[in-house]
Structures are given as C-alpha cells and as structure tokens.
Amino acid sequence: MRGRGTYRREIESIAGAVRGAAVRTGPRFTIPYGFDATGLRGECGGVAFPRGLEDLAALLREAGRRGVPVFMRGAGSGFSGGSVPRGGGLVISTEHMHRVLSFDPGRREVEVEAGVVNRELQDYLEARGFFYPPDPASLNFSTIGGNVAENAGGPRAFKYGVTRRYVRSLTWVTAEGAVVERSAPDGPAALLVGAEGTLGAIYSARLGVLPAPEAFRTYLLEGGGAAGALGFAAGMIAAGLSPGVLEYIDAKTMRCVGEHCCLGGIGNRADYLFVEFDGEPGVVSAEARAFEEMARRAAAAVRPARDAAEREYLWKLRRSVSPSLARRGVTKVNEDVSFPLGRLPEAARAVQELAREYDLDCYLFGHAGDGNMHVNVMTDRRRAEEMERVHRFVERLFALVVSLGGALSGEHGIGLTKSPYLGMVFSEAELALAREIKRAMDPGMILNPGKYFNGGGAAAAARSG
Ligand SMILES: Cc1cc2nc3c(=O)[nH]c(=O)nc-3n(C[C@H](O)[C@H](O)[C@H](O)COP(=O)(O)OP(=O)(O)OC[C@H]3O[C@@H](n4cnc5c(N)ncnc54)[C@H](O)[C@@H]3O)c2cc1C
Fold first, then answer.
1. Are 271 and 229 contained in the same domain?
2. Which of 33, 47, 49, 79 gets mutated to test ligand 1 (max ligand atoms within 8 A of its CB)?
3. pTM above 0.90, yes or no
4. Are residues 112 and 78 in the same domain?
5. Which residue of 60, 150, 376 sits with most ligand 1 atoms within 8 Å of its CB, as the best mutation to test the pocket?
6. Which of 30, 69, 123, 168 has the smallest CB count inside 10 Å?
7. Has residue 46 been placed in a domain?
8. CB of 77 shorter than 6 A to ligand 1
9. Is the pLDDT of residue 162 over 50?
10. Nearest of 200, 153, 158 to residue 181 by alpha carbon
11. 83 assigned to some structural domain
12. What domain range includes position 104?
C-alpha cells in the first residue's frame, strides 16, 4: 500500500471506467468517509457509490487492475475501525444499494441489498408479521452488509443467536470482480460472515426471519452490585429461563443515562438487569411468573412494564446507554470483550479494580445472556499521559479476558483496534492458515488491507459463530 493520497489518479480513472457509480474525490466526501464510530481517521482517496451488483463488480474489477486498496463501508458505525480507509484507497459505500429484493413468507426468508438499514428491514417485516432477530443496539443506522461482515450480535443474541445463524445465502463479489450468486453459507460465503470486508464485497444477503412474537413481558431488575445483578442473570439461565433480552447495566452507567434521559422514578444506585421474555403467550406468562418468584426470593426490586408505552420507555433507556456515554467524554474507548457466563461477576469486579488502578473513568454494560461485556472508558485523545494509561489498561483487560477463557471481541470485530492483540488468542499456526485463506481469496491484497491479521482475516471470522 502506498502513502497518503497517492491513488487519486487511479481512482479518477476508475470513475471514468465505471459510469454507473458516482465516485467522489473532494474533501466533502473523503473527510467524513475517513472515520467510523471509533473516531479513528484514515486516509481516503475517494468514495464510490455503486447502485447495484453490476457497478459493485465493475468497481472491484477496475480497482483490482490498478492495485487500488478497497474499503467496503455500510454506515461506518463499527467500533473497531473496520471501515476506516488507509493509505488513500477507495471507500465503496453501500448507501445507494438499499432495496428489499424479495420476501417469501412460506420459506421465512427475505433478501436485501447490503445497504438496507437493520431498522428498515425490521419495519418492513413487522408490517408483515415477522421479525429478523439480530438487532444490534445500532439497528437504527447500521446496515445489513455491515451486520453480516461483522457477524453482529445484540440484545437478543442469547435466545436467538447472532447474524450467522440467519444467513441463508450471500451474493458477493470477489477481489477480482467476479460475481458469486446466492452462495450458500456452507461454502466460501461462510468465510465472509464476520470477515469484516477482508475477503469479498457483499452485494446482498438472503436471511432467515421468524414470525413476530405474540407476547412480551419486560422488566427492569435492581440487583445490588455487579455480583448481585450478574449472579441473578446466571441464576436465571441455570434455572432454565430463556429471556429474549438479558442486559446488564452498572450503576455508574445508569447514573449517566439519568443525566441525559429521564429515569422516570428508576433509581441509579444499583446495578440493573433489563429483562424481556417474548414468544407464545402461555410460555411467556410461565417464564415471567418464575422470574418474579426468583426476584422475590432474592429480595430484588423489579419494575415491570405494564403496557406498550412502558415497554417502549424501558427500551428507550437501554438504547440511551451508548449515546449518553458518548456525551460524557471526548473519546470513548469501547471494548466489547466476552467472558464465560459463570465468571461474569468476578470479571466485572476485576475490570473495575483495573480501572481504579489506572485511575480511569470506566462504565460497564452488556449482553449478560451471552457473556458479552462492554467496557467503556471515557477519556480524551488529546491527553497523551491519560491515553497511555488507557492503553496499558486495555492490554491488562485483554490479558484478564484470556486468563478467564473469554474472547477479545464479542461482536464489534477486530478491525484496526484489536488486530495487534490477535496473537494473544490464536496460535501462530492458526494465523498462518488465515493468511493463506486471505491470499487465496484476495491475491492482490486489495480488500481492507492492514486490518485484521494485517492481511489474513479468516481465522477470526470463525471466532463467534
Ligand atoms: C451506538 C452503537 C451501538 C452498537 N451496538 C452494537 C450491538 O449491539 N451489536 C453489534 O454487533 N454491534 C454494535 N455496534 C457496532 C456496529 O454498529 C456493528 O458492527 C455493525 O454491524 C456495523 O454496521 P455498519 O453498516 O455501520 O458497518 P461499517 O461500520 O460501515 O463496516 C463494518 C465492517 O464491515 C465491512 N463491510 C461493510 N459493508 C460491507 C459489505 N457490503 N461487504 C463486505 N464488507 C462490508 C467494513 O469493511 C467493515 O470492516 C454498535 C455501534 C454503535 C455506534
């Protein structure tokens, strides 16, 4: 890969060769498309907006011929620098590929272009009595292409699983511009799920969907400290309860939510669990009764949502967590590590101790059902000494994750931010195999170079199926 801005001439010649796709090289595009949600800025030589499969294939073909690095981009909401361009390469945005291509209620399948926003898909399906279970907290803006490329999870992952479970086939474009139509996920398409745009460009995804749940029971449980709330979550799972949503929010995070969003009488001194049962009414009632009984025995205060408006309100609180934290500091360092379920209380305690040791402002929340803990440090990139402490904290955090048998990324991927640490979890033999797969699928090394194994993405694609 060459230095900053040196692909400008090639990108302009790609623009001439691919007439269907708008290609922009002015700062109005290259600056905003140089970032993702991490706030990291890369060097972007131009941004292309394909309108369909033909444009996408032509862009890849022409970029490949000229050796121009390509960075696929959905909404840029990634939290690991996955879509951040490097070395002045070409960003391909899927924004203008946002059609629902087909819906087959009999087969329970929908096919959408990569740029469809998760929320748009949910609304489309809701109007037809169905839903698509993977609903990352970024569903209002993140795209299906980005969700598939990151193997996105979310609040419902414990009961319903993550994106991979719902991918029926992908139509995608190879690094050399060849189109692979409707390739089933037991072939090479399996590698694309979670490969973060390092192995191919996804044009569309055929996804499994489910009938919308008939009933919901939603609660906020006040669980004392981390051990109380997370211990209660582990107890629910051990008792065989299967909530659709089981989210942990620590007291400090709840206080932060309270500063930016009305808590409506909900306290903020304890750690909380946000719990929702969904499904067939009889089953939901039985599970809700068992949950209330468990809470009574544990003397834990519970606030049930009594109607749809209250349910919506509790969801609003949950979805306010990330935006509320974002207002708290100039820089949010968000590590989505995961721990074995039974070890979550111990992990939460250890993380808070580490934060105290490095004197950092740290907030914990996450998907308690599948052990995925978001460790957020609010800091300021401009304070070099503090950033150095954050860096050492993150290294110790990852060492803690490995020692407890967890994973570096529960859902946000490896991207730029975690690739230096992959050696902590994968052996050299695994990393070498990943590099071989990368070379076989992207011989010119043009797809998202410099990320994720520094050019060898596939082993980590298998990290959290
Ligand atoms: C407030 C907030 C909450 C979040 N909550 C969650 C959560 O609950 N669960 C979760 O999993 N994540 C969450 N995320 C992270 C992020 O939203 C997800 O990773 C999401 O899947 C990224 O989608 P995107 O469209 O923004 O992709 P981008 O950020 O644009 O890209 C992400 C990666 O996918 C690749 N990519 C994008 N489109 C394609 C394509 N068509 N073909 C090939 N590769 C492609 C990119 O190259 C990049 O490596 C959250 C982020 C924010 C800001």
1. yes
2. 79
3. yes
4. no
5. 150
6. 123
7. yes
8. yes
9. yes
10. 200
11. yes
12. 100-211
**Mean pLDDT value across the chain:** 91
Residue nearest to atom 2 of ligand 1 (CA): 138
Q: How far is the CA of 28 from the centre of ligand 1 (A)?
A: 22
Q: How many domains does the chain have?
A: 4
Residue 409's pLDDT is 87
Same domain, 182 and 117: yes
- Average pLDDT value for residue range 150-178: 95
Is residue 408 within 6 Å of ligand 1 at its C-beta?
A: no
| 317 Cα to the center of ligand 1, angstroms | 22
CATH of the domain at 284: 3.30.70.2190
One domain, residues 312 and 248: yes
CB 117 within 8 A of CB 75: yes
Q: Give the pLDDT of residue 392.
A: 96
Residue among 60, 71, 83 whose CB has most ligand 1 atoms within 8 A, to mutate = 83
| Phi, psi (rounded to 5 degrees) for 49 | -120, 85
> What are the distances in angstroms from CA 270 to CA 43, 155, 266, 273, 465?
44, 20, 10, 10, 33
Q: Are residues 277 and 350 in the same domain?
A: no
Q: What is the pLDDT of residue 370?
A: 86
For residue 460, the model assigns a pLDDT of 36
Instruction: Give domain status of residue 465, yes or no.
Output: no
Say if strands 210-211 and 272-279 run parallel, antiparallel, or are unpaired: unpaired
What residues have CB less than 8 Å from 77, skipping those under 6 apart?
Answer: 36, 37, 138, 141, 142, 146
Atom of ligand 1 minimally distant from the CA of 117: 25
* Residue 203 pLDDT greater than 50, yes or no: yes
Residue 157 lies in a domain: yes
